[in-house]
Design goal:
about 270 residues; alpha/beta; 2-enoyl-CoA Hydratase, Chain A, domain 1; Lyase 2-enoyl-coa Hydratase, Chain  A, domain 2; 2 domains; 6-stranded mixed β-sheet
Length: about 270
């Protein structure tokens, strides 16, 4: 694995096949700055083809996940005048975040969001593109943009994909803030912990399941799921059958079948490098 870069807004720690990524701006409730967006994009680009990393755990330092966009960046963009023939600085600011969140959404890794405290705006969007989302007892979720006179431009499509149009309308158009239990009922998160200890246990359980699943098969499955609804079903199923044949004839398929017959864990389950 290549050495992970030094980041100003993120703490990075690799433990076995898991990269723990901690958003580290606790003084502003981990508000998402342009620098943070750039650093997140850099990290996800670097790890995409790193076979030693199979899962990424995203959480926030200081008791909050992410409180949304950084007010200082907004103020800075307001002070810049659009140059002739160029996009508005606010467009660039907003679109950079959208490109990063789309990258996280499409990552071949299993992305696990551990949410606590404020999970607002951009932080809410980040939670909505995770593969597994676990909420702690303090987590509060919301799309407050309309109460601030702006729109959830880059996160709204991902929220609709996550929970459907009907519920996304209610959250976005009323600027609601909801607790972890309602977020779980809506499908924003998958599990809710009653205590910090339980939160850590649920994370450990999720990572244990990642360990038992073949990395290439997991990545191919995630890519297949993302294609649903975006192309004709017969075309999708034809392609999926080709992928299935490749998988079952490949190294993972052979090892998985042999491990099942021999009643042992497959080799990838012990791969922690």
């Amino acid at each position: 694995m290549e050495q992970l870069p030094h980041c100003e807004t993120l703490l990075l720690e690799k433990q076995g096949p898991t990269l723990f990524l901690t958003i580290n701006r606790p003084d502003v409730r981990n508000a998402m700055s342009l620098q943070m967006v750039a650093e997140l994009a850099t990290i996800f680009t670097q790890i995409e083809h790193d076979e030693t990393i199979r899962a990424v755990v995203i959480r926030g330092a200081g008791g909050h996940f992410c409180a949304g966009g950084d007010i200082k960046d907004m103020a800075g963009a307001r002070g810049q005048k659009p140059e002739e023939g160029q996009h508005d600085p606010f467009y660039k600011l907003n679109r950079a975040f959208g490109q990063m969140i789309e990258q996280v959404n499409q990552s071949s890794k299993v992305v696990i969001a551990v949410t606590e405290g404020a999970v607002m705006g951009g932080g809410f969007g980040l939670a909505c593109v995770s593969d597994v989302a676990i909420a702690g007892p303090t987590a509060k979720f919301g799309m407050p943009e309309t109460t601030l006179g702006v729109i959830p431009a880059q996160i709204a499509p991902f929220v609709v994909e996550r929970i459907g149009l009907t519920q996304a309308r209610r959250l976005a158009l009323l600027g609601l803030r909801i607790d972890a239990k309602e977020a779980c009922a809506l499908g924003i998160v998958h599990q809710v912990a009653e205590t910090d200890e339980e939160l850590d246990q649920l994370l450990e359980q999720a990572l244990e399941r990642v360990r038992l699943c073949a990395p290439n098969a997991t990545a191919e499955t995630k890519a297949l799921l993302h294609r649903v609804g975006h192309e004709p079903m017969h075309k999708l199923l034809d392609s999926a059958a080709e992928k299935f044949a490749e998988a079952i004839r490949g190294a993972e398929g052979a090892e998985g079948t042999m491990a099942f017959m021999q009643k042992r864990e497959p080799k990838w389950a012990g791969d922690t490098e």
